[in-house]
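Friendly challenge for the regulars: who can give me the structure tokens for this chain first? No prize, just bragging rights.
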Amino acid sequence: MSNNNAEILLKVEDLKMHFPIYRGVFQRQVGAVRAVDGISFDVYRGETLGLVGESGCGKSTTGRTILQLYKPTDGQIHFEGADLVTLHGEEMRRMRRKMQMIFQDPYASLNPRMTVEQIVGEPLMVHNVATGKEIEERVKHLLELVGLNPAFSTRYPHEFSGGQRQRVGVARALALQPSFIICDEPISALDVSIQAQVVNLLEELQEQFNLTYLFIAHDLSMVRHISKRVAVMYLGVIVELTDRDELYSSPLHPYTQALLSAVPIPDPLLDAQRKRTILEGDVPSPANPPSGCRFRTRCPIAQSLCAESRPEFREVKPGHFVACHLVK
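First reply, four minutes later:
Bragging rights claimed.
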């Protein structure tokens, strides 16, 4: 997926993550939830790739599978030249220093029994990067970086607001000086007034440390603000991937068009003139996805061909990839 001279930091090829479904006394496998079902994309060094889609489409599972928190069913994940799927034990542990995650829920992702110093300092201790007094100094520096008072390092998570907790999560992710961070809906549990602060913080840190982000979200306006390129996901597959401005000005896939038509426009006159695409029905179950194109059961332009074969994820314009039979 060419981007002239940019260096590819992460390359995901035909990634699948199926969770088995067991039934009965003997726990026989009767099927699988195809949370991620054959996706491919690249992330370039220093960029932010946005990954959007409605709840349950497999975005968070993609992030966790890339970091090997789940072992993928199939596919390859190349990070800085190494295939993460084949790494185990100590090799994987060393690689983990370069990849971190900011979790969605700032209330559930911090241990309530640990102080902020213990939470942020734990990665330094686990990876033997620093000890004792050094950890204390590093933690205070990290708290300053994310806009928190270093004197708060002895406090517990319950003493902080949601936005402050998420900043602690960001500090923990930065502790080992990673090159790649997966932001798993880092702002969806926060108040709107705080969301912009956290996103601005992430952008400042990216500039300062040349970080690369995979930014998972369902808020399209926020993704537009922070991302350079955007991938749209539906029911375990990526249906469209292109440059941010290209996606918002001329979306090609019917699902992307429907998603964007639901984003409010601040001008009431323009908002009244535009055509809304209202999708019929519910998202099918990932345990029993439709044949052919995943989106065909809700697609306003679906034809018989869409049920017969799965559309190829192909480049229709330079840097613009779409999985749809009907896009020429």
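The first strand starts at residue 8 and ends at 23. The chain has a mean pLDDT of 90. Your move, everyone else.
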